Amino acid sequence: MGNWITLDTARGPVAAWHTTHTAAPRGGLVVIQEIFGANAHIRAVADGYAADGYEVLAPAFFDLVEKDVELDYDAAGRDKGLALVEALGVDAALAVVDAAAKALAGAGKVGTVGYCWGGSIALLSALRLGLPSVSYYGARNTRYLDEKPWAPVMFHFGSLDTSIPPEAIQLHRQRLPSMQTFVYPAGHAFNRKGGPQYHADSADLARERTLAFFSENLR
Known about the structure:
The structure is a single chain. The protein has about 220 residues and is α/β, with parallel strands linked by helices. Helix content is about 35%, strand content about 20%. Strand 5 (about 110-115), helix 4 and strand 6 form a beta-alpha-beta unit. The longest helix is centred in the C-terminal third of the chain and has 18 residues, at about 200-215. The two termini are about 25 Å apart.
């Protein structure tokens, strides 16, 4: 069972969901939220990775802008989440990832996994912080694909995701040919269990590949 802790970052304190199920973890993972906050779904994702043997932190990134944000999955929640993302900015988000990774250093090598907006922050964590990372349906990824990666990245996309067209997915393969890019017969947020776009087969296969990636790169 996880619990909230306070994570000190270069931009100020944020809450972070901390969870682990073993005294000898296989490594550390930073779980990076969607635009809806470090909500019950993200905490469940963190708990799932902890059950697989990792020590996990899921920071509440928006605490740097507004405390205790957990938004509904509707138009109002989306609009507020997007506004909070813009107010937070990329540099502050990476400062939170960096602080979380340092806090997890005692677990061994540290990686990140992020979803939606968090998928793009996960990519940047590999590009700028050197953390092995898995990016789920990061719609903002393409603006960063000219940067040199300092750590491996794995990408997961849905072929039915209208926010990420096929040419954007292909650009990942062209710009980062050494990185694994997978496409599933699903839409955006196919990993969000309980959501309307959840696709169990795609989510299970992506998670299997993600765990294999971390087993290889966090040794």
